[in-house]
């Protein structure tokens, strides 16, 4: 079960990615989140549990309700990990663009 605490294992699931996108703009309760999906509420709750264990989400109790919101610090860690790959692909696409331009110029 340690895999469920791995951030990249957690975001490999499309439903969990959709939850993260949903919470990108505002905090929501589990009920509101579940209402956005065509799946059982316990299934969404399990996804929320996994995302919380991975520290991608934080919980905040307001009265009787628990609101979920993104953990910006953890999301930044993911972005920092991906940045070298982003730069690598940007460089490759820029080189490809130069090759394509030179190819068109020769025609």
At a glance:
The chain has helices spanning 7-10, 14-22, 30-35, 41-53, 72-106; strands at 28-29, 57-62, 65-70.
Describe this structure in words.
- The protein has 107 residues and is an alpha+beta fold.
- The protein is built from 5 helices and 3 strands, in the order ααβααββα.
- The chain has helices at 7-10, 14-22, 30-35, 41-53, 72-106; strands at 28-29, 57-62, 65-70.
- The longest helix has 35 residues, at 72-106.
- The radius of gyration is 19 Å and the shape is elongated.
Structural class: alpha+beta
- Apparent shape: elongated
The level of helicity is 55-70%
Supply the number of helical segments.
5
Low-confidence stretches: none
What characterizes the major β-sheet? 3 strands, antiparallel
Q: Give the neighbour order of strands across the main sheet.
A: 1-3-2
> Strand content of the residues, in percent?
5-15%
Q: How are helices and strands ordered from N to C?
A: HHEHHEEH
What is the number of beta strands? 3
Give average pLDDT, whole number.
Answer: 91
Assembly state: single chain
Radius of gyration: 19 Å
- Separation, N- and C-terminal Cα atoms: 58 Å
Layout: helices, strands, pairs:
Layout: H1 7-10, H2 14-22, E1 28-29, H3 30-35, H4 41-53, E2 57-62, E3 65-70, H5 72-106
Antiparallel strand pairs: 1-3, 2-3
List keywords for this structure.
alpha+beta, 107 residues, three-stranded antiparallel beta sheet, single chain
């Amino acid at each position: 079960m340690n895999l469920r605490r791995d951030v990249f294992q957690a975001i490999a699931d499309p439903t969990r990615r959709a939850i993260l996108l949903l919470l990108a703009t505002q905090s929501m309760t589990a009920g509101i989140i579940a209402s956005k999906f065509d799946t059982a509420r316990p299934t969404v709750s399990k996804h929320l549990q996994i995302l919380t264990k991975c520290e991608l989400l934080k919980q905040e109790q307001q009265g009787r309700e628990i609101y979920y919101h993104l953990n910006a610090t953890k999301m930044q860690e993911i972005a920092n990990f991906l940045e070298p790959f982003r730069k690598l692909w940007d460089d490759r696409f820029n080189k490809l663009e130069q090759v394509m331009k030179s190819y068109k110029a020769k025609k």
